[in-house]
Amino acid sequence: MLMLCRRMDDASADIHPFPSTRTRVKKLRLILVLAGLTLLAGVSTVFGMMMAVASDLPSLENRAEFREARNSVLTDVRGRELGVLTSNENRILVPASDISKHMKHAVIAIEDRRFYEHDGVDPRGVARALFQDVVERKAVQGASTIPQQFVKIAMQAQDQRTILNKLRESALAFHLSRKWSKDKILTEYLNAIYFGNGAYGIESAARTYFGNTPEHKGCGQSKARPCAKELKPVEAALIAGIISSPYRWDPVSHPATAEKRRNLVLQRMMEQGYITPVEYREGVQTALPGANAIQPPRERAKVPYFTTWVKQQVVDRYGARRAFTGGLRIKTTIDLRVQQAAERVVDKWLPNESGPQASLVAIDNDTGEVRAMVGGRDYDEAPFNLATQGQRQPGSSFKPFILATALRNGISPSSVWSSKKQEIHSKAYGCDFTVNNYENAYLGSTTLANALTYSDNAVYAQVGLKVGLRKVANTAKRMGIRTPISRNCAMTLGGLREGVTPLDMAHAYQTFATGGLFVTGTLGPNRGPVGIREVCRMTSGDDCKKVDRNKKKVDRVLRGDVARETNEILASVVGRGTAVRARLDEFAAGKTGTTENYGDAWFVGYTKRMTVAVWVGYPDRFKPMETEYRGEPVAGAGAASGVACGAAPPPVAPPDWLVAPSSTPVEPSPDGVGVSTCAAPGEPGVVGVPGAGGSSPSLSSRGGRPFFLRSPLT
């Protein structure tokens, strides 16, 4: 009996409960139903999206865009109209038959190599781009196809990169590829793209970049001979390379990077069989069109050099289609009264059309906004903007960055330095050169402050090497110089391997004027000065819906005591040193600069309200200006400082952190430009002290290798 009970207990111990077959079937049915509903919902969503976006297809036509276009308008800071951002005659629609096959091949090679294989969206391209981004740990490759790019442009969604918009664009690109032929998509795309320098559409781009070259002279003057139809592989490669970033690959502003990009496009064309290896080798050896050969469309604006600079910022921020045809009203920072006064002063000082030209930039110290910009004598004849694109050697106008670096590192302005011929040998920097002052005029020994007042090169060569070239370069960069700053020994006297622009020099000196505060704004491009104050979209009547407004950004880059001491010393340059021609009956400070054989003349100076940078020289070549100024040399202490003085802002009381020489305020002139004790053209204005008006080093490199492009003078 006991054994029987034990067996029964054991049997019961091995029994486990299992779910019934009916329960498992119910769960399986539920899963299948949910999966089916999810699939149905997904299909319905995709179908609904496809049906919804199908209605957008007609509006994507470029001709439909023309019918709905409304020009964007530019105004000055006071609301006075400057002109339209662009106009429809700057864009010429051409059919597929009027576009060179090389142009089509170049665009496909660099933008969408599987264009003829995919249906608007390329999963392999997405996977390839994702892999590259993971490997490089940053976004290095785009995944958008040409249809997707066209949809993005046409739908004006460049600044609305949400997941929903991306899905909508992908759906529309897929639908587009099923409704339109590949040739139609490519043609509409090329007619819609912005190629920089005012060229909107492929025909406008072909005319801008190659219409003025000997091979294509006369193209575009009739419908029978469109320029886009004549493009060769190397020319098409340059234009195609610009698409992804019109500013970065601009052959006018950045010829070296534009050439590398063009060569990459040629390489892709060869790899994909569009050109032969022989054509590739010939292409990479072909020079880019010169800046004078590139002819942007005519600007319909009162200040075309400034408006072309602003135009690129608007395109970069809002996209070409919205910028040109979206009915925007862009209030810029320029003051038309100050601009016109600056132009009059330049014309007064440099009236000879065959002589040197001047470039001028004036920046408001408080806001970092550009108030005036003179980029050349005649935009229609020479659209190259000397103010924003012209990179020239700064000469001794670079010395204040060395001074500020020295003061920041504890070197006293009253420290004494040797003022005599310098034989400099530095293994650390690879230097082996001689520095002389102008006409071998030396002071024997002098202070750091006095050496800047009279632009003593022998002293500042020593100071620059002592504080370190890297530190000097970092100071200049932090203060606003955006071009590459070489660390060669001649940079201590402004002999850089690459030059600087008047725009950057004005912005950097503005940092002195603000007491060490670097000022820019949310609408300032790439840490640069601000050219746009606000943007709105014109609706009905006089209504304008706000789109953007610039917000001031401030960053301290120099200690207050360093800025104060630097300003005191720079005030002495204007008060009794090399820049007395720029003296005003108010506080003024600045520095002159002249390069070897008087090839470049600079003055950069400031009052409380405004900073002005002036460059004088021949824009298309390095030509000594030894007799152009009333039979005498053109130097920073002469014409450049005179122009700056004439364009100075109305006088105001100096801030408490500036120690200025005694001054008697004068009334501003009716046009808003204060001109007081400036020496007029032809009048003496330079005191007879060593270095004033033309202190120049005579630098000679040893060992057969030059360390600079042009040696500085003042």
**If you compute it from the alpha carbons, what radius of gyration comes out, rounded to the nearest whole angstrom?**
32 Å
Mean pLDDT: 79
Overall structural class, as computed from helix and strand content, comes to alpha+beta
Extract low-pLDDT stretches. Answer: 649-677, 682-714
Number of helices: 22
Strand residue percentage = 5-15%
Strand order of the largest sheet: 2-1-3-11-12
For the termini, the CA-CA separation is 123 Å
Oligomeric state of shown chains: single chain
Give the strand tally: 17
Largest sheet: 5 strands, mixed
How much helix is in the residues? 25-40%
Anisotropy-based shape? globular
Tell me about this structure.
This protein has 714 residues and is an alpha+beta fold. The chain contains 22 helices and 17 strands. The chain has helices spanning 2-13, 21-54, 62-68, 101-111, 123-136, 146-154, 163-179, 182-192, 202-210, 233-242, 255-271, 277-284, 304-318, 320-325, 336-349, 399-408, 448-453, 457-467, 469-479, 502-513, 560-576, 636-646; strands spanning 73-75, 81-84, 328-332, 357-364, 370-374, 416-419, 422-426, 431-435, 444-447, 517-521, 532-538, 544-549, 552-556, 589-594, 600-606, 610-617, 700-701. The chain has a 5-stranded mixed beta sheet. A hairpin with a 5-residue loop joins strand 4 and strand 5 (370-374). Helix 2 crosses helix 7 (163-179), helix 4 (101-111) packs across helix 11 and helix 19 crosses helix 20. The longest helix has 34 residues, at 21-54. Residues 649-677 and 682-714 have low confidence and may be disordered.
